[in-house]
Amino acid sequence: MTETQRINCIKCQHFYVTWDPKFPKGCKAFGFKSHTMPSQTVLSSSGKPCMNFEPKEIPKT
């Protein structure tokens, strides 16, 4: 993944929605909650795109 591509946290198995209205989005891989998408927080904090992205498994029907 290039640095210009945005990582869609919703498609990551580590992403979750919290009950905290101030920090509604969370990342289980890094262990934090955020107001913005966790991948944006990682990028702004480290200067690098999220390296823990793992696509969700799609259930077979």
Strand elements, count: 3
Oligomer: single chain
Integer average pLDDT: 91
What percent strand? 5-15%
Which key terms come to mind for this protein?
61 residues; alpha+beta; three-stranded antiparallel beta sheet; 15% helix; Uracil-DNA glycosylase
Can you give me a brief rundown of this structure?
The chain has 61 residues and is α+β, with helices and mostly antiparallel strands. The protein is built from one helix and three strands. The protein has a three-stranded antiparallel sheet, with no helix packed on it.
Provide a descriptive summary of the structure in words.
The protein starts with 14 loop residues before the first strand and ends in a 15-residue tail after the last helix. The protein has one helix spanning 38-46, and strands at 15-17, 25-27, 32-34. The longest helix has 9 residues, at 38-46. Strand 2 and strand 3 form a beta hairpin. A 3-stranded antiparallel beta sheet has the order 1-2-3, with no helix packed on it. 15% of the residues lie in helices and 15% in strands. The radius of gyration is 12 Å and the shape is globular. The chain has 61 residues and is of the alpha+beta class. The chain has a domain at 9-45. The protein is built from 1 helix and 3 strands; from the N terminus they run βββα.
Write the SSE topology.
Layout: E1 15-17, E2 25-27, E3 32-34, H1 38-46
Antiparallel strand pairs: 1-2, 2-3
Organism: Paenibacillus foliorum
Protein name: Uracil-DNA glycosylase
